[in-house]
Design goal:
This protein is of the alpha/beta class. The chain has one domain (6-142): Rossmann fold (3-Layer(aba) Sandwich), CATH 3.40.50.300. 24% of the residues lie in helices and 27% in strands. The termini are close together.
């Protein structure tokens, strides 16, 4: 799924999740979904929407894998590998997590804090930037 830039404005976590669900339904196994945004922007809410669409049997277990580095959500048709790069300081750190093996595993790879290891994000990744507009509103840019 590669397209022109698309923009959405959401007013709640639930709306952010719905946008993510719509995007998730267009992803194919092997897709990489790279999330960008500051702390509290809504990256984990977006990830929850992706998992809700692709692996609904895994809810409500979706949370940011900041300390675990990766959470796996096995659905009936696809597995979502949810990485958090917040504590990753470079490619050597990332390599030690097994990231590249996950990337080749055929599931959906979802990364938070993608800006921390830009060299790990493939060119054909779907990039999602989430910006805070206010306490509840978010601008979501997808390209």
């Amino acid at each position: 799924m590669k397209a022109e830039m698309t923009s959405f404005v959401t007013s709640s976590e639930e709306e952010t999740e719905r946008v993510a669900m719509d995007i998730a339904e267009k992803l194919q196994p092997g897709s990489v979904l790279a999330l960008y945004g500051e702390m509290g922007a809504g990256k984990t809410a977006f990830a929850r929407g992706v998992v809700r669409a692709l692996c609904p049997e895994c809810l409500p277990l979706v949370h940011s894998p900041t300390f675990a580095i990766v959470n796996e959500y096995a659905g009936k048709n696809v597995t979502v590998y949810h990485f958090d790069f917040y504590r990753i300081e470079g490619d050597d750190d990332l390599y030690s997590t097994g990231f590249y093996e996950y990337r080749d595993a055929g599931g959906i790879l979802l990364t938070e804090w993608s800006e921390n290891v830009p060299e790990a994000i493939p060119e054909d990744a779907v990039r999602v930037t989430i910006e805070k507009i206010s306490m509840t509103e978010r601008r979501i840019l997808i390209c």
